[in-house]
Design a protein that fits this description.
single chain, 346 residues, Four Helix Bundle (Hemerythrin (Met), subunit A), 2 domains, 4-stranded mixed sheet, 16 strands
Length: 346
């Protein structure tokens, strides 16, 4: 079905199609979503994940909601009121990723400029498709800006930040891809990324598809390989970046940043400008999503933890800005002091 061009989000026949990431790498299955509640469930169930992909998906969820509300014929003010209510439910599906809020805010702005339900329904679909196209171009720009920063040696990455986490190219893994396509001699080390195994299931699949040499390590081995000087660069993505540069990303990112700092290894964050949230001053204001306990206590249907084991399963952590060497965005590379350089870059 797929070659090097991985398109995890597609629109066809008034439906949203997602490459079901819970089935990878064993099955490449596109699921059809005809309604916004189905799309919200897909977000909650992590059939789609990754901040940019969640933003684009949320844009399409808003379009599906507008199409449904257009059939009610209750008047435009009621249309806007109900669309706003639905947007809150879409946002609640994954609260840490700011791209969802960014997408639904953008869609509400489009809707409020329309004269009636039909126009709004049509315009929200056009805007969602525009978001999808823009995301691929933004990711390619991120790759161009970052490829020379990781132009040699072994690169460590965490979670999945490739085409599967976006509309089609990738953020942190997009930088890796751009470096590889530029002819640079690199090798990727990637974590398994427990407990949902995004690295083992998704990053390994993408790297194999792209032909980029790679080695998977267990999450707890990162410090060993950094200390042995096996790793020359660390690059990750982001789900939300505060105004001061504090960054929310997949749980375990903070540990990697501290280890990189201890071993004098540059630590890069690759993300679109839409992931920066200037309304939050520091990482302390970023909500951290907690996932179900059975993601930790079970491997598939098999229980691996003792019965009645208490579990905390935060999906993200906060990396303080002081550990980040630079942000790589579509507008360029942002370096310290982030309090001034981030606002100046947006």
């Amino acid at each position: 079905m797929l070659n090097k061009e991985i398109r995890p989000i597609q629109w066809s026949d008034n439906s949203l199609y997602l490459l079901d990431q819970t089935l990878l790498p064993h099955s490449e299955t596109m699921i059809q979503l005809k309604t916004w509640p189905e799309t919200v469930d897909a977000i909650k169930d992590m059939r789609v994940r990754g901040a940019p992909a969640l933003g684009v998906t949320a844009g399409y969820a808003m379009a599906l909601a507008a199409m449904e509300l257009n059939q009610c014929k209750e008047g435009f003010q009621q249309f806007i009121s109900k669309l706003t209510e639905i947007s809150a439910k879409i946002h609640a599906a994954r609260p840490t990723a700011v791209n969802i809020r960014w997408a639904i805010t953008r869609q509400l702005q489009v809707a409020n400029k329309c004269k009636d339900e039909l126009e709004a329904s049509n315009e929200l679909l056009k805007e969602a498709q525009k978001m999808e196209r823009e995301d691929v171009e933004i990711n390619r720009c991120i790759g161009e800006h970052g490829r020379n920063l990781i132009s040699y040696g072994n690169i460590l990455t965490h979670c999945n930040t490739g085409a599967l986490a976006t509309a089609g190219y990738g953020t942190a893994l997009g930088v890796v891809r751009a470096s590889w396509e530029n002819g640079n001699k690199i090798h990727v080390f990637h974590t398994e990324t427990r407990p949902f195994l995004q690295g083992a299931r998704l990053t390994a699949w993408e790297l194999a598809r792209l032909g980029i040499p790679s080695t998977m390590i267990v999450d707890g081995a990162a410090g060993l390989f950094m200390n042995e000087k096996t790793i020359q660069h660390v690059i990750v993505g982001a789900d939300r970046i505060a105004a001061n540069g504090d960054t929310a990303n997949k749980i375990g990112t903070y540990s990697l940043a501290v280890l990189a700092n201890e071993n004098s290894i540059p630590f890069y964050v690759a993300a679109p400008i839409s992931t920066i949230d200037l309304t939050i001053a520091t990482g302390g204001g970023i909500p951290i999503e907690e996932r179900p306990a059975d993601e930790v206590t079970h491997l598939g249907e098999i229980r691996t933890a003792a019965p009645d084991t208490k579990v905390r399963n935060p999906s993200f952590d906060i990396t303080p800005a002081r550990y980040i060497t630079a942000f790589i965005t579509e507008n360029g590379v942002i370096r310290q002091p982030f309090e001034t350089t981030i606002p100046a870059t947006i």
